[in-house]
Amino acid sequence: MKAIVYEMTGPSSVMTLRDRPLPAPGPGQVRVRVVVSGVNPTDWKARAASGTGSMLEAPKVPNQDGAGVIDELGSGVTGLTAGDRVWLWDVAWGGTEGTAQEYVVVPAAQAVALPATESFDTGASLGIPALTAHRALTSSQDGPARLSPGALEGRVVLVTGGAGAVGHAAIQLARWAGATVIATVSGERKGELARRAGAHSVINYRTADVPQAVHEAAAGGVDVIVDVNAPANIGNDLKVVKPGGTISIYAANPGESLAIPIRESMGKNVQYQFILTYTVTEQQKAAAVAAVADALKAGALRVGDEHGLPLTRFRLEETAAAHDAVEQGFVGKVLVDVSES
């Protein structure tokens, strides 16, 4: 089978296309023929590491997310059959086998049913973005642990960076759960994408007074902030979050720090939640996977330009260019076509 492999950290050029043996699933595992692989910022950051070109202990196949068809079951697997369409999550975390290859073996729990009405593109776009968004939306101490229709009824959610992959998923999941959603963006094109995703109000932070605009959209402020750039946004966040509200922070540049205004945070009894989807508790991950699966079945998670998440695609042998596109800030979702559907 064909696979993208790298043996040392560094620029995208360290990745090469190779032939590898077909893996066999063990007990509790399934083998999936990958149709589409999704690329996330953590994929290129893990590959680049510190940029020093360190040798790895074992060759690695990149990319955490993907979608495909179950090809073979290991012993003891129930609830899945060969031929099932599935989406995959956290595939490369803690190991060496990602989705940038024609076949991958994963624990059965990491292969989740993909409805016949949904595309492999949608399946490959879930994973990290949707699971991160779910944790951000459920991190309030008095909020739901698992999203469902009506779970956020009466709550207001602010999504900063509403045109990004996590922002897009947060808007769609929050709408599905009944919240009023406000999004901030940096331009008109991104604003249109956030509206297509389902945001009730969209604010261009480059031209508007964000706190004023948020209070015009939600006079009482917001319950949860899903923040892509807390160092830049913390001042505005504290002006618009409700007393007892939550600021969920899921992104940072290497070495970046956050200066938190302590008195202002104390005055509102603000809760800060830092999020890395890979290391949430088993219960939190299980709730996120189940909720995302439910939202997918309900048609609440959609991708493509018409749904606010433009797609750009590359062939398997162009995975390096796909990583470069994400690193360079492509607005939307970067996908790699691995095999025929």
Explain what the structure shows.
With 341 residues, this protein is of the alpha/beta class. It has 2 domains: 153 residues, Quinone Oxidoreductase, Chain A, domain 1 (Alpha-Beta Complex), CATH 3.90.180; 147 residues, Rossmann fold (3-Layer(aba) Sandwich). The chain has 10 helices and 16 strands. The strands form 3 sheets. Strands 3, 5, 6, 7, 8, 15 and 16 form a 7-stranded mixed β-sheet that branches. A hairpin with a 7-residue loop joins strand 1 and strand 2. Helix 3 packs across helix 4, helix 3 crosses helix 9 and helix 6 packs across helix 7. It is globular, with a radius of gyration of 20 Å. 47% of the residues are buried.
List the helices and strands and how they pair.
Blueprint: E1 2-8, E2 16-19, E3 29-39, H1 41-48, E4 55-60, E5 65-73, E6 85-88, E7 103-107, E8 111-113, H2 120-124, H3 127-137, E9 156-160, H4 165-176, E10 180-185, H5 188-197, E11 201-204, H6 210-217, E12 222-227, H7 230-240, E13 241-249, H8 262-267, E14 271-274, H9 282-297, E15 311-315, H10 319-327, E16 333-337
Parallel strand pairs: 9-10, 9-12, 10-11, 12-13, 13-14, 15-16
Antiparallel strand pairs: 1-2, 1-4, 3-5, 3-7, 3-16, 5-6, 6-8
Helix pairs in contact: 1-10, 3-4, 3-9, 6-7
